[in-house]
Amino acid sequence: MSHLQVKKVEDNMKFKWGRKKGVSQTDERIQFYESFTYEDVEYFVYDCAYIYCKGDTETSICKLVKMFETPTHVKRVKVVRFRRPIEIREILGNHNPQWNELFLASGQGVGRQDYISPVEVIVGKCNVVCTSKDERNPHASKTELKWADYFFYRTVDVEKCVISEKFNDEIAGIKVEYFFNKRKDPKLISPSNLKRNIKMEAGRSVLSSKIGLVEKGGSAVNADKSGNGVSPVLLESKRAMTSMGENRCMSNENSTLRLKATINKDGTEPGQISFRQDQDKAKVRSSDSLLPMNESDTRPDKRRKLLLDGQKKVPKKGEDIDGKAGNASDKMVPELAGNRGAKTHAQFLEVTRRPDADRSTWFKKLPWDQRLQTAEEMGTLVLLDNLDPSYTSLEVEDLVWHAFNRRVEAKMIQQGTFSHPHYGKALVIFKSKDAAEAAISKLQSECLILEDGRPVAGCKGTLTQQGEPAKFFGHLVLDVHKCQRQCDEKRKAVSTSHSAQPNTIEYDFAMEWRCLQEWTDICWRLLFEAQAKEMQELRSQLKSTEINELT
Amino acid sequence: MASPSTQTDYAAFEEKVKRTVYLDNLSPHITEPVMRSALNQFGNVKSVHFIPNYIEPRNIPQCALVEMEDLMQAEAVVSMTSHHYFMVSGMPRPVRARPAEVTMFDDRPKMPGRTIQCQWLDENDPDFKVAQKIKGLTKLNAAQSAFLLKQQLQEEESLAKYQQDILNANYKKHEVIDNIMVDGTARRLADRYNLSCD
User: Fold this and answer.
1) Which part of the chain is the RRM domain (chain B) (predicted)?
2) CB contact under 8 A, B87 and A498
3) Which residue positions in chain B have pLDDT lower than 50?
4) Cβ contact, residue pair A448, B119, below 8 Å
5) Cβ separation A510–B94 shorter than 8 A
6) Would you say A349 and A398 are in contact if contact means Cβ atoms under 8 Å apart?
């Protein structure tokens, strides 16, 4: 059995060039091609594909713009990458991209080094639709949009870091028309082509779903002959279930279900599929979402990514998805809703427990004091001001999680004699210096407002120097050498405690101290009252606008 | 939302708050054993927690939360320190005590059923300007507090200095009187004026 499989797999893995297109003008030995077939999927020039480079945290999406073989028989594909919003979040500014929006890289320098080796990095096809209103762009139909994995209508100049809706005539030396939607080409919809692709994809997606966790060789062995249709896929996933952890087993199961569903659909309603890329998309998407899912147990960020994927699938393919897949995504949706709400400025968002509330306690942590010290040295310490004093440390951690999507450790400053009764402060340790600085600058340029109209302020945390106890006024000492006798008495007084008796100088002094204490108390109270009044006035302005908005 | 266990947790915590007293005007040299021995005369001290000073100036007095065995004992501590001048580990600055408050604890549990809401305002939001103003006011208030604290510390320093001077003067006076007795000046004067000197 294994014998057979390996052989079949080798056949599968084969890379085959398609039709020749021509040779390079500068070097005749460089041969250009119009397409290539890899793992039974045919990629044409100007198709979009997922690629996964070793070391990346996620797949990237790119357009294949040139395919050629060098004189030394190295297979190369030149690509122009799309940027995911998260990759360019620094320059997003006021743009608020949708979850499935991409930005086409443009400007100087694009594509100069973007040559990939298809055999190593290509994961699968991706359906990207251009929704630009540019005249040169054939308008995308609703069905196209519905089936698209991603869309784009803006470019990002990678050198100048500018986002623009304008498309230059050429991007990376390729005419811009090729980046827009394709002119409808009847050849591509030929039924035979379609059928073949369905079967191939069914087999292949299992393969690609494992790329994230199994080494290439291992995954190849797992992959089954594509031509056999659905049953080997099921078999595969069953085997995977027994050998892999629970999480992974779940994801594999889902993929199987989805695959089955889409294939059924393709079979019964062929009329729905009008484009060659359409049927690719369904499966490729599932393989795309599987990559993050497999890694979800190790990488927290991935998890959120997955949630997005999960949600997007529910409305789209709701009727297709079996109960299990539905449940899995349902369970995650509330958390997601929270995350998104925080970003969309829609309204107040309720801060719920962040997903990993019960963090692992396997490792004993250093005492908080020491962690604070190191955090200050590393620049990861942030002091949040103007919180509600009644917040607890955990609530602050949740708040930061929802506002910045950062996992942090936080501790409220304990209220004492010298802390402001109206402002709660908290020391927050971020995971990295960049994260801390980003949070501070975001707090300064924007406003994170709490339900009672408090804008949260943030600044770099600086700790009070520790060390020798500072000077404390009010404990008087007589010169020791002058009076041994009194010194003995004093020592007794130091080691014990007592109440001052009337009729002593100590009593008089104590009375003076008490007067000072009362006096400072009054000062503080007056200050706080005045401040509270000012603050109330400002806040009432805030409230009024809110009410105006509502009515 | 609030499960019974969190509610009982919170109730237990509130009980703890009630039997805890907050002490300030403490010398930084005071340690937990000193604190325990000082307050054990009013009941049984269950725990002592010095509130760490992370962001305030270094020279502020120490503060501590002392958990007593029950509410009665806590009240005893508070009433005693308000009626008498209670000295711990030095004189004559008296220690003050007051009932502890929830916000003084760093390990406080979440209030059951309480939810937090937050929202990002962008520049176009009508509230944005007001919110920025509030931020400004927050900073201003912090600066005011810092100034008052500095004043307070100065006051304390000058009072301490003033008292030290008086104490020294007083001590000198006593010493002079003492010396008169010791070196026989008093006796000679008494003889001179025909007075008896015992």
Assistant:
1) 19-102
2) yes
3) 1-2
4) yes
5) yes
6) no
Query: How far is A398 from A396, CA to CA, in rounded Å?
Result: 5
How many CA atoms lie less than 13 Å away from B23 in the CB half-sphere? 32
Check A403 against B118: CB less than 8 A apart: yes
Distance, in Å, from the CA atom of A201 to the CA atom of A318, rounded to the nearest integer, reads 21
pLDDT at position A262: 41
- DSSP secondary structure code for residue A35 in this structure: E
Nearest to B162 by CA among A479, A512, A482, A499: A512
Domains and CATH numbers, chain A: 9-178 (2.30.30.490), 186-276 (no CATH), 349-460 (3.30.70.330), 483-550 (no CATH)
- DSSP letter for each residue of A168-179: -SEETTEEGGGG
Alpha-carbon distance of A111 to A121, in angstroms, equals 16
Chain B, 89 to 148: residues with Cβ < 8 Å from chain A are 89-94, 96, 101-111, 115-123, 125-128, 130-135, 137-139, 141-142, 144-145, 148
Query: Given CB atoms, is A92 within the 8 Å cutoff of chain B?
Result: no
Residue A358: list chain B partners with CB under 8 A: none
CB contact A550 to B (< 8 Å): no
Query: Using one digit for the tens of pLDDT, what is the confidence trace for A296-345?
Result: 343 444 333 333 343 443 343 333 434 344 344 343 433 333 333 333 34
pLDDT of residue B1: 46
What is the C-alpha separation between A128 and A144, in angstroms, rounded?
9
> Does residue A478 belong to the interface with chain B, where contact is any CB pair within 8 Å?
yes
Contact B60 A418 (CB under 8 A): yes
d(CA A164, CA A181): 18
Question: What does the alpha-carbon distance between residue A383 and residue A440 come to, in Å, rounded to a whole number?
Answer: 9
From CA B67, how far away is CA B17, in angstroms rounded? Answer: 8
* Nearest CA distance, A59 vs chain B (angstrom): 30
Q: Is the CB of A364 inside 8 Å of chain B's CB atoms?
A: no
Does the ipTM surpass 0.90? no
Cα separation of B92 and A507, whole Å? 7
Question: Which of A54-63, A119-128, A323-332 has the lowest average pLDDT?
Answer: A323-332
Nearest by CB to residue B109, choosing from A342, A392, A473, is A392
Q: For chain A, how far is it from start to end, CA to CA, in angstroms? A: 72
Q: Does B72 touch chain A (CB under 8 A)?
A: no
Q: Which helix (H) or strand (E) holds A15?
A: strand A15-17
Q: Which of B86, B118, B149 to mutate to test the interface with A (most CBs of A within 10 A)?
A: B118
pLDDT of residue A506: 82
**b/e for A212-231, b at 16 or more Cβ within 10 A?**
bbbeeeebbebbbbbeeeee
Torsion angles phi and psi, residue B45, rounded to 5: -80, 125
Q: List Cα–Cα distances, A151 to A99, A104, A138, B83, in angstroms.
A: 10, 10, 14, 76
At position A106, the amino acid (one-letter code) is S
Chain B within 8 Å of A389 (Cβ-Cβ)?
Answer: yes
Size of interface A-B (CB pairs under 8 A): 290
pTM for the model stands at 0.51
Q: How far is CA A164 from the centre of its chain?
A: 23
Q: Distance between CA atoms of A63 and B26, rounded to whole angstroms?
A: 70
Decide: A191 and A252 in contact? Cβ < 8 Å: no
Q: What are phi and psi of A535, to 5 degrees?
A: -65, -40
